[in-house]
Design goal:
The chain is an alpha+beta fold and 249 residues long. It is built from twelve helices and six strands. It has a four-stranded antiparallel beta sheet with strand order 2-3-5-4, with helices on both faces. It has a two-stranded antiparallel sheet with strand order 1-6. Helix 2 crosses helix 7 (104-127) and helix 3 packs antiparallel against helix 8. It starts with a helix and ends in a 6-residue tail after the last helix. 26% of the residues are buried.
């Protein structure tokens, strides 16, 4: 395998960082790498907000579920779906683009563009020896996040990316089996095979937790997922997105 594939396959989330900020050069490289990602029809429907203000980082950490590493990481990036600039395009060109901007399709474009850009940013950071952790917890309270970041209409913060110098690295969690993720030509519909693959994965995950916690934990993946999905979470999201002028049509 080449260096890039090794880098990708060595990924693990880092939540403990040294007290050391990123340099301006590192920040620019990460953002430039993000911008090099593919974007649907050249729309570039995303923005990145870098948070350096200590008070703002502390508030974001609280809003994200009291995740302290958001405050202590070397730099915190927030990736946003952004159709605000296209509203400005509408005004500049004298064409009413509201129906298109507020469509579900363009909202999906913003989500996808932001995710592609973020993964480029993550790989760029990791290639410099930095650690990263995605933070979906900012969606716990998007009204509060938008107030802190002063985001306008048609802009929705999607997730954060904490980046910094690793103080400690976690073990890598085993992923789902290759054949459970990859379907060739059509979606695998055999319920027996599907369940068998999940049962096998449950054994792998249970063993992973048992070893990692010295026997204090041995839950399976399907147990985790059932408990997680059983708790209704962020159910305000559809109303919030539409309040921001997206996914309305």
């Amino acid at each position: 395998m080449n260096t890039m594939i090794n880098l990708i396959n060595n990924h693990r989330s880092v939540r403990h960082f040294e007290d050391k900020p990123l340099s301006e050069e590192q920040i620019q490289m990460i953002v430039t790498s993000a911008q090099a990602a593919s974007t649907s029809s050249f729309i570039q429907a995303y923005s990145i907000i870098g948070v350096t203000d200590e008070a703002k980082k502390k508030k974001l950490a609280e809003l994200a579920g009291n995740q302290s590493f958001v405050e202590t990481c070397g730099h915190f990036f927030v990736f946003c779906a952004d159709l605000h600039r296209h509203k400005v395009v509408s005004e500049m060109e004298g064409i009413n683009l509201t129906e298109s901007i507020e469509s579900t399709e363009k909202f999906m474009v913003g989500l996808i563009d932001a995710a592609l850009a973020a993964q480029n940013a993550a790989l760029s950071a990791e290639s410099m020896g930095l650690g990263i952790c995605y933070v979906g917890g900012i969606r716990n309270n998007l009204h509060g996040i938008c107030e802190v970041l002063k985001t306008p209409e048609h802009v929705i913060p999607l997730f954060g990316l904490a980046v910094g110098y690793p103080a400690r690295e976690n073990e890598q969690k085993p992923r789902l089996p290759y054949h459970h993720i990859y379907h060739e030509n059509e979606y695998e519909q055999s319920p027996d095979q599907y369940r068998a693959e999940l049962e096998e994965y449950n054994k792998t995950i249970s063993a992973y937790y048992h070893e990692r916690t010295s026997g204090k934990r041995a839950d399976t993946w399907t147990e985790q997922m059932s408990h997680m999905f059983e708790k209704k979470k962020r159910m305000y999201m559809k109303d919030f997105v539409q309040e921001k002028g997206l996914d309305k049509i």
